[in-house]
Amino acid sequence: MGIEKTSRAWWTGNWNTNPNYIESEYTEGGDLKTWPKKTQSIIPDDPTLKIYMDDATNDINIDTKPSGAKISYKPYKDVNGKWIVLGVTPIDKVRVPVGMHRWRIQKEGYHDRELASSVLLRDAFSVKQKELIKSNYGDPLKFHWNLYEKNSVPAGSIGIDRGKFQIGLRGIWFNPKGMMLDQFFIDRTEVTNRDYKKFVDSGGYANPKFWKPEFEKGGQVIPWAEAMKLFVDQTGQTGPSTWELGDYPEGPVNGKGSAEKTKAAK
Known about the structure:
Blueprint: H1 2-17, H2 21-27, H3 35-42, H4 47-56, E1 57-65, E2 70-75, E3 84-88, E4 91-97, E5 99-106, E6 113-119, H5 127-137, E7 142-146, E8 157-160, E9 163-165, E10 179-181, E11 184-187, H6 193-201, E12 215-217, E13 220-222, H7 224-228, H8 258-265
């Protein structure tokens, strides 16, 4: 009994002198579900603990389509840290640390998904701002992710869910209502020289269906066949300008003109 009282006194005193333990615990890779819960079990009515717990965490809802997916997360910076399992969707009112996190969604028969998304502070926005965000983008504390069957995703790609997005780039008009984008797939990495050479060797430069934009030279539109004569490497062979003898140096694809970059993006 004496040991228990001593432990409780140490824990309470240590907490009261350093309440930011909660923040350091999860930002350094700790599991929010263990240490703070232990603290709450020892000093459940401590007002300082409640304030810091509310400041450091928020309650979120998670659902997936289809449901029944296992959800795990970890701090974004903790790349090699262990995943913290939250449960199986749908998940309602689960307390998670605020900040940017890595999320993993898993379900048998579907591709594993890993993505990044942040959990907002409880007072991140005013009531009016929250209403505006909800009306334009949906509830920021309700996470919804789609799953993709294993045979439905092109090799080397990942699925991007349909939704509203903001383009936060200088010089581009900011639309407070966001831009709606349909679901699409995007490559995990940039186009490699190896993959681009496959396109070149399979006759991609000889097939106009891969070259949709018009070509201009000196301010004048030129025929497709004439434009293709300009897309050659340093030895006059078909391909990006940095290649030699129809082959590439090591590294990412460089030396493509704007039209070639458009093709690579497709």
